[in-house]
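Re-running the complex after MR caught last week's input typo. The corrected sequence lines follow. Everything else is unchanged.
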Amino acid sequence: MNTDNTKSQMRKGMLEYCIMLLLRQQPCYANDIIQKLQDAEMIVMEGTLYPLLSRLKRDGLLGYEWRESTQGPPRKYYVLTDDGQQALAQLDASWEEILRTVNILKMGN
Amino acid sequence: MNTDNTKSQMRKGMLEYCIMLLLRQQPCYANDIIQKLQDAEMIVMEGTLYPLLSRLKRDGLLGYEWRESTQGPPRKYYVLTDDGQQALAQLDASWEEILRTVNILKMGN
DNA sequence: GTTTAGTACCTTGCGATACAAGGTATTCAA
DNA sequence: TTGAATACCTTGTATCGCAAGGTACTAAAC
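Corrected-run output:
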């Protein structure tokens, strides 16, 4: 059993939450997100991120706007929609619940 | 987007950790685990649990012993092996890392 | 003008896994 | 002996992270 796979599994499902937390602060394009998550000690691959952003966009939780770059092609900056804000609030609640669960299990019920 | 699905997504990958946390306290059989996790506000289905226990057993992280029941067929009580203890320690570290990540993202980096 | 390097966005195929549904086996009481 | 309760397990489906590969645009080098 390799630890990387386990850790990867634990990150599953957290990614969506983390990305929306990021976008709550400010609009970002893909490489922004990858970099900022890396700064927060979470790795996300391109092949993971793009489909995830597309899905959140399709579900109406994110919108985007094109912005020119000083060097290179234009960038797609994603923003939280109102629905996204509401969904994020629910994710906050879910996160708190998971925190409680783990704490209970650590205490030894 | 329904909340249940969202919550389900966030639980993904946490299950393995939560089950091992449980078994760190005491040996349990399947229904024990389902009940105790439910007490800790986490839902797990039979069809999820049995394959997961089999996998952890196959990977050498869990062992089990049969115990007679006062009513009904014998039960398979799972226990953490030494390897399981070590793996759990790594999962503890991964969990701490996720905690840090979420806190950083919540602060607004 | 053409080529090359860099940046950015996206898709495809694969493996892992949660879950619903269905199946088998054992025990005990009616 | 039959039925209900308990316990263990398997199969099929959908979802998602990830590696690899592909397309498109920009700017600088030649």
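None of the earlier attempt is carried over here. The longest strand of chain B covers residues 62-67. Residues 9, 12, 29-31, 46-47, 50-51, 54, 69, 71-76 of chain B lie near DNA strand D (CB under 10 Å from a C1').
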